[in-house]
Amino acid sequence: MELEQNQNNSLMTQADAFLYFLQRLDLSMVDAILEENRTYQDFEKHVFIRKLGYSLHEFIQAGDTFLNRYHGYCNSKTCTINARDLPSQEIYRVLFRLNCRHKR
User: Does the global pTM surpass 0.70?
Assistant: First the structure.
């Protein structure tokens, strides 16, 4: 319990919380922390959550329980981001551009 409390204390921003719950494939918590009146990846929130849900469902169906996070970049010629070591033996690229303006 103490470890869990310490981990939650490190969730200082909405972006921290988003990544924390995304890694744990927890769509309902991702939905709860995102603001209603904003767009995400150029989609209204409900559309973004639905599309993200489809992707997370695929991970869960393949036996994945946690997504590893890799820092990197992608541009038109190079991409240094790969998600590896998943039980599904698949490689997925999930990219999010995070703009952090507010503390939670």
Answer: no
